[in-house]
Amino acid sequence: MWKCCRLKGLSRPGVMSIVGGFMLHLTLGTLYCFGNLNTYMTSYIRLYVPGAGDVHYSDAIWIPTLSSLGQGLFMTLSGHLEDRIGIRLTILIGAALMTSGVFLTYFTIKYSLVATTFTYGFMFGLGTALAYAPPLGV
Length: 138
What we know:
It is a single chain. The protein is elongated and about 60 Å long. Helix 3 (62-85) runs antiparallel to helix 4. The protein has 5 helices and no strands. By secondary structure, the chain is mostly helical.
């Protein structure tokens, strides 16, 4: 496959790095879709969480806010961590934190908006901070 077409002069690992970085950034960008998720998450909390019938859509704005805050605060940690343990492990830890935040939201959304804000907001933001910057330097 690599011997034909226009990819003849390109190395396979280089192309795979670019494709992997693109896919990672595509996943990390799901934070910017929160406006669409807000409707469903807030409605779910109103209907199924006892005592949370007065939750408004504006209350859930703390989720992307905390995610952006976590991303901004811990982005410098990403560079230091990359120098110590390497780019692959830094991205792996960040992706694991981000994925864990989304996974744990399945459980926390059944209890409260505050717990959901921590998992989908802060954990997601911390994971994004660790995984976002390293592929930019590739």
